[in-house]
Amino acid sequence: MTYDAFLELVKARRSVRRYKPDPVADEDIEKIVEAARWAPSGFNSQLWEFVVVRKPELRRQIGSIIGEARQRLFKGKAPTPNSENGPPQKIDVGWQEAPVFMLVFGDTRVRPLSHVPPVRTDDEKWTAVFYASLAVAFQHAALAAVSLGLGSQWMSAVQVPDVEAKIKDMLGVPEPLKIFDMLVLGYPEAMPPEKKMRPTKELIHFDDCGVDDFRTDEQVSMYFNNK
Ligand SMILES: Cc1cc2nc3c(=O)[nH]c(=O)nc-3n(C[C@H](O)[C@H](O)[C@H](O)COP(=O)(O)O)c2cc1C
Asked: What does DSSP assign to residue 15?
């Protein structure tokens, strides 16, 4: 594979916010998980489990669990469905039309088995290893999806404690498995607009770079507010 082909794949991965209802073949789901399982993981724990939700009723229930949590979080300002040509919604709900919700869980039982003492004793270290390992697998899955012509969206609302509890209960996921995030998958109905990117040169800092080589507080907030 060439770098150009790789970069093309990376750039083609965007957060798709509107989906066709067309189903995703089981074969493609397997390919996506196959790519995810090759991800690196802290102490090679391979702590991941992938729960693939396809049944419409289960997806509908997950949608309403997340919807209720968002209502609370955004103080009752309910999201409205994206209209065909309307302005972008503050809280998008297009993901609810996607035919597959892939829930990624991490198995907390690996923690005491680690040969790395801080992972066992230091919550911060464990948390970093847990989330970093699962995030890499998650991104492998998202890139594999692109290669299969599928779109995806990263949904972290499932991490809200009562959302996690309700989803685990509904699907019968055992207690020691902790939810990471949900990858929404399906064929894109529309692609998002081009996104503003920080230039590469601004992000690279070679060798003994000093404070002046990095952004000021003002530049950080200016970029964030205008992105
Ligand atoms: C850790 C993480 C959590 C995210 N959580 C959500 C989410 O809960 N809902 C959502 O719509 N997008 C979520 N996103 C997607 C980002 O909004 C999106 O990646 C970003 O706006 C850049 O757009 P792009 O993915 O099209 O490049 C998340 C992304 C990451 C990396």
From this structure: B
- How far is CA 35 from each of CA 13, 32, 74, rounded to the nearest angstrom? 15, 5, 35
Q: Which two tokens stand for residue 41?
A: 């993981």
Tokens 């929404």: give the residue. 184
State pLDDT tens for residues 134-174.
Answer: 999 999 999 999 999 999 999 999 999 999 999 999 999 99
C-beta 157 within 6 A of ligand 1: yes
> pTM of the predicted model, to two decimals?
0.93
Q: Which atom of ligand 1 is nearest to the CA of 156?
A: 8
Domains and CATH numbers, the chain: 3-193 (3.40.109.10)
Decide whether any atom of ligand 1 lies within 6 Å of the 183 Cβ: no
